[in-house]
């Protein structure tokens, strides 16, 4: 998954942040670095004021690669006129300045006249039926942008939602107004709330890191990322992170399973926390190629935040990557102790990234490629994979009112209205993922008359 050069948001336990000398900021100018490091500081202050954070999501086991569906046409979204004092543009908070489908349309009147169905109860949520008019911003989203993500979900649809896919494909070249009208006629909005009736949830962001690596162990490249070892079993925990570095039996099983070598053990931890990432690998012949390391499994141990471990010992005052790196630089003899405080390790598999594949995100728990700005990770006990969801979230850096698809999950994504927003990869995603820690409301859009 999961996702994600190079920034973890402040909501995740032990967020990881780049340093001025790290590959993360190699592309940035001096002013850009200053802005990004300021974002790191702000996020650190947010975390410092929070209670003990939940564990960072591990990516789910990946499914076999689905067939690629042709992407829907891209639609340029006109920017609304600037508002004095408004937050800086995030790249994800644009909406149409005028409704695509206004309340005077016949479909609005028809939808408002339909009887509301009974609430639906999921394992970890209660869905309360509502009118379309209750969805903040409905009618102003550039829905054609979301259709790519929906087409992806139709590659591996759930039975109830799969019945819609023929129409979803047909409408991939339709106008935004036609897509809005079709959804209002065929889908019923349900407000997602806790079993106790609380609709307020938490939104965080995640992304896909980009790191540099070497195919062979040499020079500074001494930290391996491993493929799944032969002795791994889902029925019982495998060796812990510390045992993988010290136990002869674990080392023997890992022999030959190294995919690439990194120069920094904290970069390896970053990739394991995010669950997947893009890696620029230098081959023995000097050639460089971009590959994706995708989640393939983990060793079955619980996740423990190294940032929390340092905070609890008073070693740092903010759980940011800047603070963690600074502490590690000052205490090189204790780096292993810090890393070993988190017994969980993630294993990867290598995937090629040609020019076409590089335009898409990693595969999420649904088994389809994630779409930046339109894919979210959810608790599948609350919202089934592939469900179209209307998302509304307002925070200091971003305002979101848009259609997204539930296509991923993670160990920290637990709760009725809990969502992780996939921002993509590269410089902009790096900044965007950092700023998202804010309340969210979700509405599941479910086929009418479907259980």
TrEMBL record:
| One GO biological process term | cell wall organization
Task: Tell me the keywords, alphabetical order.
Answer: Cell wall biogenesis/degradation, Lyase
Q: Which Gene3D superfamilies match?
A: Barwin-like endoglucanases (2.40.240.50), RlpA-like domain (2.40.40.10)
Keyword ATP-binding applies: no
- Tell me what organism the protein belongs to: Serpentinimonas maccroryi
Q: List, alphabetically, the InterPro entries matched.
A: 3D_dom, MltA, MltA_B, RlpA-like_sf
* Enzyme Commission number, as recorded: 4.2.2.n1
Under catalytic activity, the entry for this protein gives:
Exolytic cleavage of the (1->4)-beta-glycosidic linkage between N-acetylmuramic acid (MurNAc) and N-acetylglucosamine (GlcNAc) residues in peptidoglycan, from either the reducing or the non-reducing ends of the peptidoglycan chains, with concomitant formation of a 1,6-anhydrobond in the MurNAc residue
Q: A Pfam family matched by this chain, by name?
A: MltA
Q: Which residues form the Lytic transglycosylase MltA domain?
A: 210-349
What name has this protein been given in UniProt?
Answer: peptidoglycan lytic exotransglycosylase
Region of interest (Disordered), ranges = 57-95
TM stretches of this protein:
none
Q: Does the keyword NADP apply?
A: no
Instruction: State a single Gene Ontology molecular function.
Output: peptidoglycan lytic transglycosylase activity
Q: Name one GO cellular component term.
A: outer membrane
List compositional bias (Pro residues) regions by residue number. 67-85
């Amino acid at each position: 998954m999961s996702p994600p050069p190079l920034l973890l948001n402040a909501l995740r336990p032990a967020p990881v942040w780049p340093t001025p000398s790290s590959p993360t900021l190699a592309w940035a100018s001096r002013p850009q670095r200053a802005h990004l490091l300021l974002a790191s500081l702000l996020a650190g202050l947010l975390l410092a004021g929070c209670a003990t954070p939940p564990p960072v999501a591990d990516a789910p086991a990946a499914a076999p690669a689905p067939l690629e569906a042709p992407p829907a046409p891209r639609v340029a979204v006109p920017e609304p006129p600037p508002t004095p004092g408004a937050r800086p543009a995030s790249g994800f908070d644009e909406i149409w300045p005028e409704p695509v489908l206004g309340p005077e349309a016949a479909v609005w009147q028809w939808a408002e006249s339909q009887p509301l169905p009974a609430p639906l109860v999921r394992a970890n949520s209660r869905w309360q039926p509502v009118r379309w008019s209750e969805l903040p911003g409905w009618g102003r989203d550039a829905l054609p942008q979301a259709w790519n993500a929906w087409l992806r979900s139709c590659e591996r649809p759930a039975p109830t939602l799969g019945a819609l896919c023929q129409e979803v494909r047909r409408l991939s070249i339709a106008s935004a107004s036609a897509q809005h009208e079709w959804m209002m006629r065929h889908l019923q909005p349900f407000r997602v709330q806790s079993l106790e009736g609380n609709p307020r949830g938490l939104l965080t962001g995640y992304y896909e890191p980009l790191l540099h690596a070497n195919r062979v162990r040499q020079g500074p490249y001494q930290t391996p990322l491993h493929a799944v070892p032969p002795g791994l079993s889902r029925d019982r925990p495998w060796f812990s992170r510390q045992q993988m570095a010290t136990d002869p039996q674990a080392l023997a099983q890992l022999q030959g399973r190294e995919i690439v070598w990194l120069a920094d053990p904290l970069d390896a931890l970053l990739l394991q926390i995010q669950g997947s990432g893009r890696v620029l690998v230098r081959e023995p012949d000097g050639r460089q190629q971009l590959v994706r390391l995708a989640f393939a499994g983990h060793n079955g141990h619980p996740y423990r935040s190294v940032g929390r471990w340092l905070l609890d010992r008073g070693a740092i005052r903010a759980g940011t990557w800047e603070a963690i790196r600074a502490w590690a630089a000052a205490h090189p003899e204790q780096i292993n102790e810090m890393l070993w405080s988190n017994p969980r390790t993630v294993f990867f598999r290598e995937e090629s990234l040609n020019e076409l594949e590089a335009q898409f995100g990693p595969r999420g728990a649904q088994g389809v490629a994630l779409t930046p700005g339109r894919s979210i990770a959810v608790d599948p006990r609350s919202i089934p994979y592939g469900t179209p969801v209307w998302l509304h979230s307002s925070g200091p850096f971003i305002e979101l009112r848009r259609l997204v698809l539930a296509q991923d999950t993670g160990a920290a994504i637990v709760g009725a209205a809990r969502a992780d927003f996939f921002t993509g990869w590269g410089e902009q995603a790096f900044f965007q993922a950092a700023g998202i820690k804010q309340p969210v409301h979700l509405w599941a859009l479910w086929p009418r008359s479907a259980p």
